[in-house]
Automatic annotation (TrEMBL), chain A:
GO terms for biological process: tetrahydrofolate metabolic process. Gene3D superfamilies: Folate-binding superfamily. Coiled coil: none annotated. GO terms for molecular function: sarcosine oxidase activity. It comes from Thalassobius vesicularis. This is Sarcosine oxidase subunit delta.
TrEMBL record, chain B:
Pfam families: SoxG (PF04268). This is Sarcosine oxidase subunit gamma. SUPFAM superfamilies: Folate-binding domain. InterPro entries: SoxG, TrmE/GcvT-like.
Length: 109, 192
């Protein structure tokens, strides 16, 4: 069972209290963008075995969206953080580096 | 105006632990900047209670103010006073970014009473939340799910829990609580 701490209300929420929102930190390419950019935005997703960044919503709780960094292989959670960022904050990156030296995910490492 | 009727007409499940649908209960959803002094003053003016901290509920007589999310409060007050309270909030907060809505008729309120430990167990059996006295004390409010529906609950005193949910799922929530209560105590929370 996955347990994430909601950064907005501080609750240690288990999976059934949350709603998964897919991959985090996608950059949107809308009308006017090239076909390649739009296809990448629309369909291309990471599917790592290891460090992953996701969006979650505390749906049966405070209702807020937030980000989570976790390991898909072990369900280890490195941390959760605000939704109002376009890349993981440094302390999250540091927490991952401490556990998974040399990790990388898309442009982040 | 037509007579207000609560969701289940004060349905009552009797036993060692009683479950009652209470109401009609006045409720206002108030959204805005909780840290703003003017916001706090408006809340205090309407309820007499202060703005609660994270996951807390503050009381003042029959009124209460519950923390729902970083930008949302639930104000509880007598049903008949809601209209005036919303007008008063609208006047006090005019010009700021806020929202005050009367949600009294959109919600249902339940009260679970009995011995302190078993009352916690009635809810603990239904919700993925830590109901132990260390983790959930008087003055705390927890929004979570009750089996398959969203709900929020708090203790008004040891052995008395209040729970709110949407009115449309009131029957479901009542049946859950009544079934959980009738199943008897588990003895998990050794507290009276």
């Amino acid at each position: 069972m996955l347990t994430l701490q909601c950064p907005y209300c501080g609750v240690m929420a288990e999976e059934t209290e949350l709603h998964a929102g897919g991959e985090a930190h996608l950059k949107r390419f809308g009308p006017g963008s090239s076909d390649e950019d739009f296809e990448t935005y629309m369909f291309m997703r990471e599917n790592p075995k290891g460090v992953h960044f996701e969006r979650w919503r505390h749906v049966n709780g405070c209702g807020k969206w937030f980000h989570a960094a976790r390991c898909t292989a072990t369900l280890e959670v490195f941390g959760t953080y605000s939704a109002q960022v376009s890349e993981p904050p440094q302390q999250i990156k540091d927490a991952i580096t401490a556990k998974r030296p040399g990790w990388s995910w898309r442009n982040f490492a | 105006m037509s007579e207000a009727v609560s969701a289940l007409n004060n349905a009552y499940a009797k036993g060692a632990i009683t479950v009652q649908e209470v109401g009609p209960q006045g409720m206002i959803t108030l959204r805005g900047d909780l840290s703003d002094a003017a916001f706090g003053a408006a809340v205090a003016q309407v309820t007499g209670a202060s703005v609660p901290g994270q996951r807390k509920i503050t009381h003042a007589g029959a009124n209460a103010v519950a923390w729902m999310s970083p930008d949302e409060l639930l104000i509880l007050l007598p049903y008949a006073e809601v209209g005036a309270a919303v007008s008063s909030l609208n006047a006090a907060l005019a010009g700021t970014h806020f929202l005050a809505v009367n949600v009294s008729d959109a919600r249902a309120l339940f009260r679970v009473t009995g011995k302190p430990g078993p009352v916690r167990e009635v809810i603990a059996k239904l919700a993925p939340a830590d109901l132990s006295p260390d983790a959930f004390a008087l003055g705390d409010i927890r929004r979570t799910r009750l089996a398959q529906v969203a709900a929020a609950f708090w203790l008004t005193q040891e052995g008395e829990a209040n729970l709110v949910c949407f009115r449309s799922v009131a029957r479901y929530a009542f049946d859950l609580l009544a079934t959980s209560a009738a199943a008897g105590p588990v003895g998990f929370f050794r507290q009276g």
